[in-house]
Write a structure and sequence with these properties.
Leucine Aminopeptidase, subunit E, domain 1, alpha/beta, nine-stranded mixed β-sheet, Cytosol aminopeptidase, 2 domains, elongated, Macro_dom-like, EC 3.4.11.1, 476 residues, hydrolase, 20% strand
């Protein structure tokens, strides 16, 4: 069998070629430049050309426009436009070659090999595990030998996000709480089951799992990247509802299938820790993922029931579809036992977050300016943005004024400020000075907003969490 190797050649506006593309063109005595000049109008950002038979080693060459040279960080957009342009261009070129059933692609580093690697690996991912006809599997490598370390780093960042996408996309009957835990256990850590959860008096978590035949699982991950350090660990907590029917407060049937991804918080947290381990980041991280289904049955929690969380606070459950905050409450209480340096919880928590920000950014509620700055700085690098939301006492009063218990799991004005009252509820289970709640409901899936991700579950913001952890590893 002959292995055909294809070269992906992005270049800059007005035939300003990247360094690798210029070298390739020189090896062809300027043939690539000439073909570009006569092949049609100038290539704008994201537009492409394919040339065949111009090089004996690379019978198929894709060329994609990168946009303006040295675009840099854009304050208005809160990301590095150069990095985003590279991710988008490389993704487009790789998919173009994948559509031609090319199975190996050499990628131009475009001056930022990590971003190029991310674009290639993220762009080629497609969930087709349950289909008879599979998408062509494409391997990628950096063209030339420049900055192979940066390339491998980008590959690991992208593979981490792809792991989250894989978990989020898998149908709920294939990814039960136990199956989720087993997948992560193969990579990192053991898990605890119902007896341990009961021993920990996690009444809020158990109340959500009661309606399902699937047993709950509490997944605890420890990554000791700096074993000799006296630095307290970073704690990441992810909501792990592997299917959310709404329970007795049943959701509408339309689009309920996407609730297979209601464990997106757990998926991104676990994937980011797997990635941190792959990168050997010098930081200690603990991950917690309460995993269960939220289903209606004769055993399910009923609206108006009162349950007791691990810290002894009672909760009136007026809406069983506001279940994510219940399982996170117990996980946050347990997480404080590790005296963490900072706590970040991640959850597809509220439809209100989707209404507020859509898919542009993850909403962040935090009691710490320092923690916000670290998360924001990381998101500018990755292009997977975050946006700070209010955490006013105004919202706290709406969940603490409960008729039957210490707290109510929904705000007294129901839908008004729903993302904010959910965050206020979670804060009632936090005493740490550096805590952030990331509501990822709006960024859970991708239609066409992120060009280098195919339609489907997005795995966001895995790369931002990894970049954030990497930043902590090198800060006081």
């Amino acid at each position: 069998m002959t292995l055909y190797v294809s070269l992906f050649k992005p270049f800059f506006f007005l035939l300003h070629l990247t360094e690798a593309a210029a070298g390739f063109d020189q090896s062809l005595s300027g043939k690539l430049s000439e073909l570009l000049k006569i092949s049609g109008p100038e290539l704008k950002k994201g537009k492409s050309r394919i040339f065949y038979g111009i090089h004996e080693d690379f019978p198929c060459v894709a060329v994609v426009g990168l946009g303006k040279k040295n675009a840099g960080v854009c304050g208005a957009e809160n990301w590095d436009s150069s990095k985003e342009n590279i991710r988008q261009a490389v993704s487009a070129g790789c998919r173009l070659l994948q559509d031609l059933e090319v199975n190996h692609v050499e990628v131009d580093g475009c001056g930022d090999v990590q971003s190029a690697a991310e674009g290639a690996v993220l762009g080629l991912f497609q969930y087709d595990q349950l289909k008879a006809k599979k998408t062509t599997k494409v391997t990628t490598q950096l063209h030339g030998s420049a900055d192979l370390v940066g390339w491998e780093k980008g590959v690991k960042y992208a593979e981490g996000q792809n792991l989250a996408r894989l978990l989020m996309e898998t149908p709920a009957n294939h990814l039960t709480p136990t199956a989720f835990a087993n997948i992560i256990e193969e990579k990192l850590a053991p898990h605890a089951e119902r007896a341990w959860i009961e021993e920990q008096k996690m009444g809020a978590f158990l109340s959500v799992s009661k309606g399902s035949e699937e047993p709950p699982v509490f997944l605890e991950l420890h990554y000791n990247g700096s074993p000799g350090s006296t630095q307290a660990p970073l704690l990441l907590v992810g909501k792990g509802i592997t299917f959310d029917s709404g329970g007795i407060s049943l959701k509408p049937s339309s689009s309920m299938d996407v609730m297979r991804a209601d464990m997106g918080g757990a998926a991104t947290v676990c994937a980011s820790i797997v990635t941190a381990a792959a990168l050997k980041l010098p930081v200690n991280i603990i991950g917690l993922a309460p995993l269960c289904e939220n289903m209606p049955s004769g055993k399910a929690t009923k609206p108006g029931d009162v349950v007791t969380a691990r810290n002894g606070k009672t909760i009136q459950v007026d809406n069983t579809d506001a279940e994510g905050r219940l399982i996170l409450a117990d996980a946050l209480c347990y997480g404080h036992t590790f005296n963490p340096r900072a706590i970040v919880n991640v959850a597809t928590l509220t439809g209100a977050m989707d209404v507020a920000l859509g898919s542009a950014a993850t909403g962040v509620f935090t009691n710490s300016d320092w923690l916000w700055e670290q998360l924001h700085k990381a998101s500018v690098v990755t292009g997977d943005r975050v946006w700070r939301m209010p955490l006013f006492q105004h919202y706290t009063r709406q969940v603490t004024e409960s008729q039957l218990a210490d707290l109510n799991n929904i705000g007294k004005y129901s839908r008004a400020g729903g993302a904010c009252t959910a965050a206020a509820f979670l804060r009632e289970f936090v005493t740490a000075p550096h805590w952030a709640h990331l509501d990822i409901a709006g960024v859970m899936s991708n239609k066409d907003e992120i060009p280098y991700l195919r339609k489907g579950m997005s795995g966001r913001p895995t790369r931002t969490l990894v970049e954030f952890a990497a930043g902590l590893a090198h800060s006081e």
